[in-house]
Amino acid sequence: MTTEPQIDAAIDTAASTDINIGATLTSQRIALELDERQVATALKISIEQVRALEANQFEKFRSTTFARGFLKSYCRLVKLNEVAMIAAFDSLKASPEPNIKPVDKVNKQTHLGDPIIVLISVLIAAVIIFLAFWWPTLSQDSGGVGTALSDAPQESFTEQPTAQPNLSDDVVTEELATLPEQTNVIDPIVDLSADEEVVTGLSAEKLALLEEAGVSEEVVVEATKQATVKAPITTTPEPEPVASYKDEIVIDFSADCWTEVRDNSGRILYSGVKSAGSQLTLNGQGPYRVVLGYAPGVSSLVYKGEQFDFSSFVGKDLARFELK
Predict the structure, then answer these.
(1) Which of 140, 143, 160, 322 is the most exposed place for a label (fewest CB within 10 A)?
(2) How far apart are the first and last CA of the chain?
(3) Residue-wise pLDDT tens digits, 88-115
């Protein structure tokens, strides 16, 4: 029958809730001939915290999660059934359900005859009537104004020719010598000779203007030959950035904190209690999943050389987040 396993499970749960956690821990420690200092050294906690566990004074710990982790470690040390002990701890710390009180006062519903509803209805009807009769008239007026503006004559502007000054051959030669340096085009190195055609860098329009000013094309070509040709610009590739950090994860602790870090495959890189003033450095394959049993005990968390703010992931001193 299926009822027998359910009855056995209910009996085990009820039995676990009747366990005296502190007395069980004390008797098992004495049976193994261990003193309080040996337990504190093995668990890396103080003797006062060991005595608090054995006296069922879990409120002396910083948080419920912190006390639960120490209780599990104590059970493993003295070889007790940690499942039953944790079940007894959870039943002891279970919060009572909030009381639901009935609502006695019910507000009076609004009826259609309410003066406020009548006034709002009249205002809405007036706005609808205004839009239905006056909006087309306003649209036509706007269209008329637009037509009047579009029909207005537009002034035509003609560009006046710029008078060209009379330039002497010497002045033009000196000015043309600097023209290749003022252009935006970077020309390659060219070996100029008398037999090859020289590129002056001037458009046909500029050459026509110079010809009207009395400057011949031969003068322009000679000035271009005497100009200095710039060398091509070469760029040096920038070196690739080098990582400025040694360890991917660096965690500093200001108080005792239970910490667990897993890599992207789920393998545990570290799991245990880090004491105040210690540091944890890890390397592996990200992303990493991190659990902090007492988040206020972490003073700094640096990931890949940058400070990581995990304050938004903290709830009741417990933090769970992922480092990508």
Answers:
(1) 160
(2) 50
(3) 998 887 755 444 444 444 455 556 667 8
